[in-house]
Amino acid sequence: MIYVYAIIDRPTIPVPDMPGLEGAALDTLPCQDIGAVVSLSTMGKAPPIEAILWQHETVVEALMTDHSVLPVRFGTMLPDEAAVQAVLVTHYAEFTTGLERVRGHVELGLRVLWNDDGARPLTPDQPPPLSLGSGRAYMLARLGEECKLQVRRKRAESLARDIHTPLARLAAEATRRTLMTPRLLLTAAYLVRHEQVAAFRQEVEALSSTYPEVRLLCTGPWPPFSFVAVRNEL
Hints:
Elements: E1 2-9, E2 27-31, E3 34-40, H1 50-63, E4 69-71, E5 77-78, H2 81-90, H3 92-102, E6 105-114, H4 135-168, E7 173-178, E8 184-193, H5 197-210, E9 214-222, H6 225-228
Antiparallel strand pairs: 1-3, 1-4, 1-5, 2-3, 6-8, 6-9, 7-8
């Protein structure tokens, strides 16, 4: 079996001298001006355990030093080199477009933790704190909790937008999701040019000072998993 890590440009440049999964050597299977980085595998399926996941991630990150990279979904295997070549030929146009899209860019991630309303999350299913002496009291209590929830959501959306907007201006592309949990105000990913990474981090620090009620966690640079990771072509 052939394990596939990523699609890269400039396939004539050697891949890093490092082991892949199962300690196997990395190799590049070229197709015109792109290639697939692969290694031989004796596994029928790559188990999603931490050590193997990190080895896959380490290889993809190392490729970023000399190549533009389209990460391939973890666990992708094809039966032989001919099958890999067939995919490269069939999806050559998509791969070259994707590589051009991310050339010179990296992904930066952001998580924003919020300490709003204490430790108690507000949800529609939370029992109201009032004594339920009547149906009317119950309905009023539930209405009050729902109003609090709506106010909190509006505050979250406004704050998330205020944090996300200046960062998105420094990125070619961005994705975001708001209030994934009561404490996770914002989770976002940004496709940023290499030369803009320092400015992006400085903006994160400035936002941390502007909004002391939240905690901003910036990670990366990463391969562009959130933007052009190869999922459906293989």
